[in-house]
Each structure stands twice: as C-alpha cells, then as structure tokens.
C-alpha cells in the first residue's frame, strides 16, 4: 500500500454523509463495545467469495445481488427473511438453469442499515428535522426525538445482523434450500405464465432424471445446501472499523471487515481521497463500487488503482446505476476505459437507483425502465466484447406495491396500498422473479454468443 493503512486511517480524510452525533463520548463507548464483539463473518468466507467473483470476471459465473434498500428494526421477523430468501433462491435456480452456470448469491441483508441521503434536512409542513439515515443511525418517524442520531442503535443493528445471518445460514444449509424444495416452491407460480411453467417443467425433468440416475438431492451437499453471502454499503465507518479484525490465519495478517462478506462504496461517497475509499482499500473483502453518471473515466482508473492495486480478479465489482436513459451514454466510456487499462472487474447492473421517479408524491420505479436499463447493459457488453457479470436489485419477498408495472401490473394508483419501504421502492416477489426470467434469457444469449454450449430444449 502506498501510504500506511490502519482500520482508523479514514479518520484523517475528508468525509461526507456522516451523521451529527450529539454525544461523542456515548459514540466512542459504543464503538469500543462493538470492537469486543464476535465477528459476523470470517476472512475465509470473504476469500471464497472473491474466488467465486473471479469466476464471474472470467465469464464462468453470474452475480445475483439483492435485498432491501434499508433493513429495519421493525421488520425483523422470520417471515420477511424467509420470504426474501425463498424468492432469491427461486431467481437463482431459474438463472442457473437457463444460463447453465453457477449463480453467485449475495444478499443485501444482515447489515444493510445505513443510508446516504441527498439532503441533511427533511422539511414537512414547514417543520425541518434531520433526514432519516437508516435504523442504525436514527428513526424514520418524523419527530425530533426519533431523528436524533443515537449510537445505541449500532448495538441493535449488530445484534439484528447476527440473528439474521444465523437464520439465513440455517436456511441455506439446513435443508430448506435443497433443490427439491426450491423446485416444489416453483410449483406455486407455474400457472402464472406459459414461460414460467415451461422453465419449472424443465427443472422438474432435470430432478427426475437425476433421481432416476440414483442422485437424490437430499443426499448431496451441493444440492441440499446453498452458498449464500451477505453485503451492505460500508457507510457508517465507525461501526465498520469496530468490526474490522486481523485475519490471524495469514502470516501477513491482513484486515477483514467482519460486518459482511462484500462491502460496497456508494455513489455519493466514492471520492478517491476521501474516507470511504480509504477505509475500503485496506480490508481484504470483495469491494463493490457504485458507478453513476458523474463518475469520470480518470476517477475510475484512480479508484481501481487504490482499491485493487494488484488487479486481483474478484476483488472489485463495478455496480453500474445510470438510469435507462443514461446507461447508453456512460457505460461504453467506462467499459472502454477498463479495457484500455486491462482492469479485472465484475460488471454488475443496478437498474434501480437511476430509475427512481415521483408519481402522486410517491417515489417509485417503473418496471419497464428497470428492464430497459438491464437490456442496454447487456447490449453494451455484447457490442464491446465484454462480459455482463451481475445484477443488483432492491427487492423483497413480500407482495408490496412500490415499483409500478411488471407482469402482474402494479398501477400508479395502487402504490399506496402496500408501500412499506423505509427508503427506496423495491420489486415485489413477482416483479423480482419476472426480472430473473428476463435476465436468464439474456444470460442464455450471452453464453451462446461466447461459444459455450447451452443445450437448447426449444
Ligand atoms: C443503495 O444502493 O441503496 C444506494 C444508496 O445506492 P447509490 O449509492 O448507488 O445511490
Ligand atoms: Co436504495
């Protein structure tokens, strides 16, 4: 590393998007307490994820990342977690089957609490209060008390993350996620559309064929369990620092951020010489970098040099979020830059954050625009000879009405019915599956074009 790094070296850099904690002693006490708690994830798991993402760089796998915009203390029930996990696995199975390649599954979960905001202040009916910044910082209720940043919330967030992670690990490995089960859930939606029915039928055929050959999914670890990783935006750096630990299994004792497997830097906090980039460069986790329209080519080169000086495959994922109308203008210049510099990156598409619009005073995202951004993302990579490697979604397993459109048509006038998000609008379970089916088709085309055999059943 060019300059010495420590888990606290970010503190001497300029920083944006930090809350104003009223009591510094209380904040320091909480951070000191968190530093004594057990890690949530292990360095070995983060290295494993890097290997999986290296396969994505090589065009041999695809990244599926998704979850809430912001997790909340109030919604911390088993049903929410299980329903999310279930639809996420259904999406992964559809994609695995259609693309015939491993899908690297990364949830925005078990730590996705801190939010960057476009304004520090929110004004309602002439009253101005600090903006809501995520449950790890303050409360969403529009009262002075609730909006005051409270460090104790970090302890709550840590405990909720630990419990959530424990539950998803149990779901992933305890039999719930077995291929046979996932297939049974598919039966719930086979009647929905002919295309969905057809894919479910083919997966069923594959399972019957395996069984006939003597392979019972229940008795094979690869089919009985699934690999699932966690991720969140590493925004609240005091919290992240407290959970940064030395990896004692390695001689050069690198540091690992133990709050989640993949940590990303938001579009608002990616200034090369600022605190968030400084923190991320020193931890061994796979790092995500949100890339919006304002990211200059030179800055991307600088950021890649800082965050991935050895150009390691799987270390850096570029999460592109331009908007359907801008992706065609900006993605080609960044792809060109990355090609010219010979950088190893995962190209992932976040079709949510550039497509937010306000309808009847509610923030929403039209499904068609989400799909349009995804299609252009794949088309640009096709034209430039690069590999579209991932998709990043804000989604839930519940039947919310937050994004408009989709196969089952959420209308603008329905938005208020089940608009539960504390932050950005999420795809509901059916919309998320709808996206998965469409991405699966694009993946199939991409794989065929790249000369890999996809056994055509049509
Ligand atoms: C997010 O992922 O919720 C987010 C705030 O994204 P971005 O930094 O891309 O705006
Ligand atoms: Co969001």
UniProtKB/TrEMBL annotation:
SUPFAM superfamilies: Aldolase (SSF51569). PANTHER family: PHOSPHO-2-DEHYDRO-3-DEOXYHEPTONATE ALDOLASE (PTHR21337:SF0), PHOSPHO-2-DEHYDRO-3-DEOXYHEPTONATE ALDOLASE 1, 2 (PTHR21337). Phosphoenolpyruvate binds at residues 108, 290, 321. One of its GO terms (molecular function) is 3-deoxy-7-phosphoheptulonate synthase activity. Its cofactor is Mn(2+); Co(2+); Cd(2+). Keywords: Cadmium, Cobalt, Manganese, Transferase. Binds 1 divalent cation per subunit. The enzyme is active with manganese, cobalt or cadmium ions. This is Phospho-2-dehydro-3-deoxyheptonate aldolase. It comes from Candidatus Raskinella chloraquaticus. Coiled coil: none annotated. It catalyses: D-erythrose 4-phosphate + phosphoenolpyruvate + H2O = 7-phospho-2-dehydro-3-deoxy-D-arabino-heptonate + phosphate. NCBIfam families: DAHP_synth_II (TIGR01358). GO terms for biological process: aromatic amino acid family biosynthetic process.
């Amino acid at each position: 590393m060019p300059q010495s790094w420590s888990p606290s070296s970010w503190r001497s850099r300029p920083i944006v998007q930090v809350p104003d904690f009223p009591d510094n002693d209380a904040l320091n006490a909480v951070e000191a307490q968190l530093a004594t708690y057990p890690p949530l994830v292990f360095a070995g798991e983060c290295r494993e994820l890097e290997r999986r993402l290296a396969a994505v760089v090589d065009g041999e796998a695809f990244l599926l990342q998704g979850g809430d915009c912001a997790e909340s203390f109030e919604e911390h029930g088993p049903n929410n977690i299980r329903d999310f996990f279930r639809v996420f696995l259904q999406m992964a199975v559809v994609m695995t089957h259609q693309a015939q390649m491993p899908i690297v599954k990364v949830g925005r979960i078990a730590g996705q609490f801190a939010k960057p905001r476009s304004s520090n202040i929110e004004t309602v009916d002439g009253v101005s209060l600090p903006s809501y910044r995520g449950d790890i910082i303050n409360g969403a209720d529009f009262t002075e008390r609730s909006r005051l940043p409270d460090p104790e919330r970090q302890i709550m967030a840590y405990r909720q993350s630990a419990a959530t992670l424990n539950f998803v690990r149990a779901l992933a490995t305890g039999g719930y996620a077995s291929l046979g089960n996932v297939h049974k859930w598919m039966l719930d939606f086979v009647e929905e559309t002919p295309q969905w029915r057809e894919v479910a039928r083919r997966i069923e055929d594959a399972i019957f064929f395996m069984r006939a050959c003597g392979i019972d999914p229940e008795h094979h670890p690869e089919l009985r369990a699934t690999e699932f990783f966690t991720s969140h935006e590493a925004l609240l750096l005091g919290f992240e620092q407290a959970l940064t630990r030395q990896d004692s299994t390695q001689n050069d004792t690198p540091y690992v951020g133990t709050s989640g497997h993949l940590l990303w830097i938001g579009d608002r906090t990616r200034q090369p010489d600022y605190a968030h980039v400084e923190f991320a460069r020193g931890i061994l986790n796979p790092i995500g970098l949100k890339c919006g329209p304002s990211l200059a080519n030179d800055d991307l080169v600088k950021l890649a040099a800082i965050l991935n000086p050895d150009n390691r495959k799987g270390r850096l994922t570029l999460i592109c979020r331009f908007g359907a109308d801008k992706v065609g203008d900006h993605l080609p210049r960044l792809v060109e830059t990355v090609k010219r510099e010979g950088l190893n990156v995962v190209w992932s598409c976040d079709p949510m954050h550039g497509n937010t619009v306000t309808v009847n005073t509610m923030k929403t995202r039209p499904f068609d625009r989400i799909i349009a951004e995804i299609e252009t993302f794949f088309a640009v990579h096709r034209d430039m000879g690069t590999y579209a490697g991932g998709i990043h979604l804000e989604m839930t397993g519940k039947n919310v009405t937050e994004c408009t459109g989709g196969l089952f048509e959420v209308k603008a006038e329905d938005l208020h019915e089940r608009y539960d998000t504390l932050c950005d609008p999420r795809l509901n379970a059916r919309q998320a599956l709808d996206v998965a089916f469409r991405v699966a088709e694009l993946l199939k085309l991409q794989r065929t074009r790249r000369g890999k055999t996809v056994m055509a059943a049509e």
